[in-house]
TrEMBL record:
It comes from Fontimonas thermophila. It comes from the Bacteria. This is DUF4124 domain-containing protein. It holds the Pfam family DUF4124. Residues 18-57 form the DUF4124 domain.
Length: 175
């Protein structure tokens, strides 16, 4: 059984189909000024209104891009790894410096010459050297101080770069 509204439905479907299939007409844009306010509209504001010439829009084609979040995570991980390496290097250097400072402090307390001491430290412990010998090996300049201790033992202290680099003792030969 057909109802009387069937022709109306067919007509409505036909109109909708034609509207969807019809190409969209370019709409005209008008610039309107009212009390210092500018607005754009699709209808003329007054009888003298003329459409505004618009430049063609810039269309940027969408290109596939790598995973931005993944890239960010990789960069963050690289920065974290570099920071951790720098921190580890600092801790290693700090630990070495503290150990050297402790070794020198212990040497001062026990009145023993140790590597890393400065010339003033050695002078405080043993005074001025009996003999000073200077030598140069390439770019390195060395200075060796020799002391004769109270028991006749000879103490040789070598400085490289302004710090003790070697300490040797030599027993004296008894007649």
């Amino acid at each position: 059984m057909l109802c009387a509204c069937a022709p109306l439905r067919l007509a409505a479907v036909g109109v909708v189909t034609m509207l969807l299939a019809a190409p969209a007409a370019p709409a005209e844009i008008y610039r309107c000024e009212d009390k210092g306010h500018v607005r754009f509209t699709d209808r003329p504001c007054d009888a003298q209104a003329e459409p505004v010439e618009l430049r063609a829009p810039i269309i940027v084609p969408a290109e596939p891009h790598p995973d931005l979040l993944g890239d960010s995570d990789k960069k963050s991980a690289a920065r974290r790894k570099a920071r951790d390496a720098a921190d580890a290097a600092w801790v290693k250097d700090y630990t070495a410096r503290k150990a050297a400072e402790e070794r020198i402090r212990h040497g001062r307390m026990t009145r023993t010459v140790v590597e890393g001491m400065k010339p003033d430290d050695v002078r405080r412990l043993h005074g001025e050297p009996d003999v000073v010998t200077k030598s140069r090996g390439g770019k390195t300049e060395r200075e060796t101080w020799r002391y004769t201790l109270d028991d006749g033992t000879q103490l040789h202290v070598t400085f490289t770069g302004g710090a003790v680099s070697a300490v040797r003792t030599r027993e004296s030969k008894k007649p």
